[in-house]
Each structure stands twice: as C-alpha cells, then as structure tokens.
Amino acid sequence: MCNIHEAAGRVCSRATMASVGAFVFAFFLFSPVISAPVRARQAGPQASAAPRDQGGMPVSPSMQTPQAPAAKTAPGAAGQAPAAAQSPSGISNTPPSIPVDQIIQQFAAHELEFKTERDNFTYTQTFTVQTLDDAGRADGEYKMTSDITYSQDGRRNENVTYAPQSTLERITLSPQDFADLENVQPFVLTTAELPKYNVTYAGRQAVDALGTYVFDVAPKTLEKNQRYFQGRIWVDDRDLEIVKTDGKAVPDIRKGGNENVFPRFETYRENIEGHFWFPTYTRSDDFLHFTGGDVHIRMSVRYTNYKRFRVSIRLLPVPSDH
To answer: Among residues 7, 55, 63, which one has the least CA distance to residue 35?
Structure first.
C-alpha cells in the first residue's frame, strides 16, 4: 500500500488503483468486531468462534516486528502436557509426538494436495480496505467483490461483481497488494515452496477446539520481484493441515521517494470438505509506517460460497487377470 498523502507523483499513483480495480474485488459489510472461525474437525462446514482478544480483535503489532503474535490458548487444552513450560503467548514447549521434520514434510505434501483440490472449487471473494482517523473512524474505503473460478489448466479467473468508487485519499493500492491478496494472504506452503523458507518449530497451542503445532516461517532469501510470507502458521496436530496463518507479505518496497509497505494479517481456514481446510477469512488492523507519517488501516477479506464444480480424477492400476 502506497502513501499518497504528500504528492500524487511521489509514490504509487491513484491511476494504479483505478486500472487494477477495474478487474479485481468488491463489497462486503465491514465490522470492526468479527469472529473469524477455525472450525472444529468434521467432514463438512460447522460454526465455531475463533480466538480473539478482549476487544474482539487481534492486536496487530508494528509492521516492523518480524514475528507474528500467537493466539491465546484455552486452559487445559488437549495436546498440552500439564507439566510443560508455557510462554506468556500461551504456547507450550511440549515436544511433538512425531519428528518435526516429518510433520513439516507431511503438512507440505497435504498443502500441495489441497492446492490441487482447490482448483476444483468456485468461491466468492469480498475485499475491503479502510483508512482510519485518530479516533478510529473510517475516512476512506476501497471495496470489491469477485467470483473466483479455475480453468482446466489451473489458471485462476476473476469476475468482478461489485466495485464502487474508492474513497481512499491517504493511500492507494499497488499491483503488489493485489498479488499478495491472491498468493500471500491465503498462504499455501507446498512441497515445492518449502525450500524457499526456514520453518522452525515453536511449540504446541490450542486454537479454538483444535490442538496444533506452531511453526515460525521466514524466507531464506528475498529474490528480486518475488513476494513471500513471513510469520507463523498453526498446523492441526491430527490431520497435519495448516489451519491458521499470522504474518505479513515481504519485502516492503522503498525506492527513492516511493514507499510501498504492507500490513500484518491473520488468515483463518475452515474444514470445508473432507480433510481439506480452505481459507475463509483474513483480517488486518495495522499502522503503515511511511516517512511522512503513519497511516492506520483496517483490511478484511472473506472467502465464501465454496462450491465444487468438478471432481478430481485419479487413475488407478487395473489388476491383471490370473
């Protein structure tokens, strides 16, 4: 997100938003207190409340903080040994029941399977960004709603269904923001992507009704023109599927007078079908640190109406006749 408070020509232009906004996102009812569910384990959707702070929202630290905050854990949660040490964040240092490397390899393999399966679903994506004044009131807003489909070759298609005129005046959205919306905020850490990241075991924690393994994730190197996730992931300790991510897209981009910085966010997944956990909600409440001053923003993305439109076909060997 780029600062346009001082001069339109000094950073990303508003024309960037207009050109990109013509083919991306839209509207949903934005509320400052929204429950973001991580659903209990079952074959199909079910309602469940996500962990929240006392004000009903996660407290987002400064974007310059390298590690994402952990959600609070329920006292006496399953998977938490009574004698194990526990950090103030609620993460237990109880070792996993299987080797850490095995957990990482298995959840990355499951992520690859999920990414393939996701291409068999359509869904609706609703996106909102607001800038907030000193009193916490919205003084600018960008909205867009899109229907997302995938082609036979896995290419993502987006059909904008609602996109009112943006009222943002202090920031504008850059092409990197829209790329992050597609690839980083619904972060998928597959076997192919795994070599790009350092993945470090942080402990165990209860998230909603789930026992999870917690991992810190950071890119090994920052390649030019590439976008990465940096933060923390929570992996269901039974199915070994990612159920929550908390972090930010990196790197921030500062070249000369141009500043393009990115907020910290949380993404929750739900058990939509079988053992697959689909992203359903992303939220952010953060300050963007520009040279000319901080800008308080609030962002939200909802992924709804998941519908299967085709079935994966697996070819199995035919037993020979004897």
So the answer is: 55
57: nearest Cα among 68, 40, 71:
71
Measured between alpha carbons, how far is 200 from 218 in angstroms, rounded to an integer? 9
- Calculate the average pLDDT of the chain: 79
Distance CA 133, CA 295 (A): 8
Q: What is the pLDDT of residue 85?
A: 63
State pTM to two decimals: 0.73
Please write the tens of the pLDDT for every residue from 271-318.
Answer: 999 889 999 999 999 999 999 999 999 999 999 999 998 765 444 455
Q: Measure the CA angle with vertex 304, ends 34 and 107; round to 5°.
A: 90
What end-to-end distance do the CA atoms of the chain give, in Å? 66
In this structure, are residues 141 and 164 in contact, taking their beta carbons and an 8 Å threshold? no
